[in-house]
Amino acid sequence: MSEHIRSETGENTTAPPQAAKQAAWPERVEVGERQVAYRLTVRAGADELWALLADPHRHHEVDGSGTVKPRVEGPHRLAVGDRFRVHMKKYRVPYVMPLTVTGSEPGRLIEWAHPGGHRWRWEFRDNGDGTTDVTETFDYSWVGQRQAKAYELLRLQKENARGISSSLTRLAARHA
């Protein structure tokens, strides 16, 4: 809602809208070699957040990379062993990514593997005060040495760090 103010000349005018304040910024978390992880506290319970991320049909709602599209084939609630396909677009090139769930603990963790071997993991730690510490991790410790070197030459760690930070910020904004 705009606020009416009086200018120096005495005219009534409308104040420019103010941007919402960022509660906090994602912080880098050291979780291990060949892993990129960031954490942010979100004003929502762990079960609610897990339900959102355990539904691949809703991943586009929080994706900060800009690559995940709304079209998904697969279940609405992921469990270990489930397979799902996400329609994506990067560098204006559309493609479909087949993924396999490798970890699922309601209210605590959801993780899936990319065909290249790396994994995406979301972890939730309920703080008991209506907030949850959410950590998203790009984990390429599962790939071989050559592939890891290729990821590093392509600067995927840096690119994914930006996407993770943006995804966490988008998730927090939904619950501000």
Automatic annotation (TrEMBL):
Residues 13-24 have a biased composition (Low complexity). The keyword Chaperone does not apply. It comes from the Bacteria. Keywords: Transferase. It holds the Pfam family Polyketide_cyc2. One of its GO terms (molecular function) is transferase activity. InterPro entries: Polyketide_cyclase/dehydratase, START-like_dom_sf. Residues 1-26 are annotated as: Disordered. This is Dimethyladenosine transferase.
